[in-house]
Amino acid sequence: MDRIPLLIFSDAVSSPTGLARITRELAVRIAAHLGDVFELATLGHGGCGNYHLPFKQYSWTFNDDFIIRALPDVWQDFAGDRKGIVLT
Question: Checking CA distances to 83, which of 7, 38, 48, 73 falls within 20 to 30 Å?
Fold first, then answer.
């Protein structure tokens, strides 16, 4: 069975914010306990993604009225044409 693409959209896991910490901990737990079900990646604001974590990390810094114009490109790179979940 193919794993389900799961993209968590939040602050970048390498950012020093509380939201980034929550995202990082959630992503690490999902990867550790549900890695056979979900193919995981994060898309976060800020940060450089320099953590050595067991999932792909994407980041964005440009804010255009909270419209993330790179989201379709990120999804295409991460999941291709597969359906999946974006968790915010």
Answer: 48
Tokens representing residue 43 in the block: 């898309």
Over its length of 88 residues, how does the chain's per-residue pLDDT go in tens digits? Answer: 799 999 999 998 988 999 999 999 999 999 999 999 999 999 988 877 666 888 999 987 766 555 667 788 899 999 999 999 999 8
Q: Which of 47, 62, 45, 50 is nearest to 8 (CA)?
A: 45
Beta bridge partners of 15: none
CA distance 44 to 42: 6
pTM summary value: 0.88
**DSSP labels for 24-84?**
HHHHHHHHHHHTTTEEEEEEEESS---S--SSEEEEE---BTTB-TTHHHHHHHHHTT---
